């Protein structure tokens, strides 16, 4: 009888941990691709099923996998979070720019009033991404016709840039997390705003 009670306790504990791990992964790690979420969700369901037949091993497996994914989540979040040393000025970026660079990744461009020295005191964050991220940032900084960032620079604002390398398949997921972290404006949205503004003028 006692063994049956313990088995039930292990099983229910495995179910709870699996559900918590799944919720953490789905909602706490929004920068994961849907393919990754599907794979992890399947693994957690299998852990719960395993716990029905092998309660203690199923519980241990659920705990280990949830802990691994939580640590991965923290590392990924740290990679995207604000660190002062990751930023460079627009002038420094342009000085080091080479058009043969073809790395994929996302970028965050911060603008602030003239005289601001600390990137964390930014006024606006523009977030974008591209399979050729360096070329896109160069284009954003220099497009006189459609770039809101270029308008900000022309108005005397200071600008900082951060490039976050990422494989093409995770660009969209990472970009969405960056928008959340920096309360950012998707760059394409700002692009459209400037286009509509200029169309009204002309």
Short description:
By secondary structure, the chain is α+β, with helices and mostly antiparallel strands. The chain is 61% helix and 13% strand. A 5-stranded mixed beta sheet has the order 1-4-2-3-5, sandwiched between helices.
Structural class comes to alpha+beta
Helix content range of the residues, please?
A: 55-70%
Number of strands: 5
Radius of gyration: 23 Å
The run of helices and strands is HHHEHEEHHEHEH
Low-confidence stretches: 194-202
Strands of the widest sheet, in order across it, are 1-4-2-3-5
Mean pLDDT equals 77
Q: What is the count of distinct domains?
A: 2
Given the structure, what is the number of helices?
8
Would you write up a description of this structure?
The protein has 202 residues and is α+β, with helices and mostly antiparallel strands. It folds into 2 domains: 2-80; 84-201. It has helices at residues 2-28, 34-53, 55-80, 90-96, 133-142, 148-154, 171-182, 187-201; strands spanning 88-89, 105-112, 124-130, 158-165, 185-186. A 5-stranded mixed beta sheet has the order 1-4-2-3-5, with helices on both faces. The relative contact order is 0.13.
Name its key features.
202 residues; alpha+beta; 5-stranded mixed sheet; 5 strands
Give the helix/strand layout.
Blueprint: H1 2-28, H2 34-53, H3 55-80, E1 88-89, H4 90-96, E2 105-112, E3 124-130, H5 133-142, H6 148-154, E4 158-165, H7 171-182, E5 185-186, H8 187-201
Parallel strand pairs: 3-5
Antiparallel strand pairs: 1-4, 2-3, 2-4
Helix pairs in contact: 1-2, 1-3, 2-3
């Amino acid at each position: 009888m006692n063994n049956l009670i313990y088995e039930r306790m292990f099983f229910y504990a495995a179910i709870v941990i699996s559900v918590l791990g799944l919720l953490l992964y789905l909602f706490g790690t929004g920068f994961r691709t849907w393919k990754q979420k599907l794979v992890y969700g399947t693994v957690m369901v299998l852990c719960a099923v395993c716990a029905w037949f092998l309660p203690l091993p199923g519980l241990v497996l659920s705990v280990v996998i949830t802990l691994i994914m939580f640590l991965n989540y923290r590392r990924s979040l740290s990679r995207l979070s604000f660190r002062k040393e990751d930023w460079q000025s627009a002038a420094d970026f342009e000085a080091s720019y080479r058009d043969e660079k073809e790395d994929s990744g996302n970028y965050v461009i911060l603008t602030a009033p003239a005289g601001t020295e600390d990137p964390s005191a930014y006024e606006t964050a523009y977030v974008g991404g591209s399979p050729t991220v360096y070329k896109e940032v160069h284009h954003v900084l220099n497009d006189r016709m459609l770039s809101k960032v270029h308008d900000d620079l022309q108005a005397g604002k200071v600008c900082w840039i951060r490039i976050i390398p990422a494989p093409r398949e995770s660009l969209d997921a990472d970009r969405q997390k960056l928008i959340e972290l920096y309360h950012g404006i998707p760059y394409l949205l700002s692009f459209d705003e400037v286009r509509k503004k200029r169309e009204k003028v002309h």
